[in-house]
Amino acid sequence: MGYTCFETTESEGVAHVSLCRPDEFNTMTPEFWRELPEIIGELSDSGRARVVVLSSTGKHFCAGMDLAVFTGGSGAGVTAETITETGRQRAALRYNVLHLQDALSSLERARMPVLAAIQGGCVGGAVDMVTAADCRYTSADAWFCIQEINIGMTADVGTLQRLPKLIPEGVARELAYTGRRMDAQRAAELGLVNEVFDDHETLLEGVHEIAAEIASKSPLAVHGTKATINYSRDHSVEDSLAYVAAWQTGMFQPDDTMESFRAKAEGRAPVFDDLGPLHKGL
After folding, report:
1. What span, in angstroms and rounded, lies between the C-alpha atoms of 18 and 69?
2. Residues 235, 243 contacting (CB under 8 angstroms)
3. DSSP secondary-structure letter at 62?
4. CA atoms of 40 and 119, how far apart (whole Å)
5. Range of 112's domain?
6. Mind listing the pLDDT tens digit for each residue in 79-98?
């Protein structure tokens, strides 16, 4: 299926999802907010891919929200412009914001890890997006900016909720209050970024190598690991231990573990089944 804002490829368990509007700095148009959750949701539900690499094209990773989202609706199916009564209009706008939030949360909900490969500017809504990914990698020229404060608004699509759990809260607050840029090296020092590569080409090569390594592991074990880490981030240690105990009771089966042992004994790479498709609504 063709998309306006993304190009997608799949190879050996790795799905590559790339923003493809470099001349417009890959701004987040109304189509973006429909296409991203559709792409990620389909990959997750199908169970074909074991890792997603989220990258971009051109000088900048993403310049954030496109003006059309502010002036023409977000694609949420709720158009506050057609409602004249103030309370109902505000209620409709709330659902538009929830729609935008949910689109980016699709990265977090996906059954497989999402690795973000970032070059150049990562601005405004793009910061919301990459903080929902599992891991972030950059080229040396990358920088981050919580742009919303610079245009007189509060960031509302995930940055303020996720960033303080990825870097020291005081630093996150400073960036959110000032709208200053944070370069790739500083982001790596703070732990927001796993690794900084020399340029865009080596960035993509390096991230695909990491993705291939993840794809070689048991997809079920990786899925359980992601689910457990996400749960533990938002819950107490005690609750998180109970969660993983329940997860293991239901999801841990010996097949993949035995395949790992056999492969090691036979001096070969293990072969694991894909997660398999979900049949929602049945």
Report:
1. 20
2. yes
3. B
4. 21
5. 6-215
6. 556 778 999 999 999 999 99
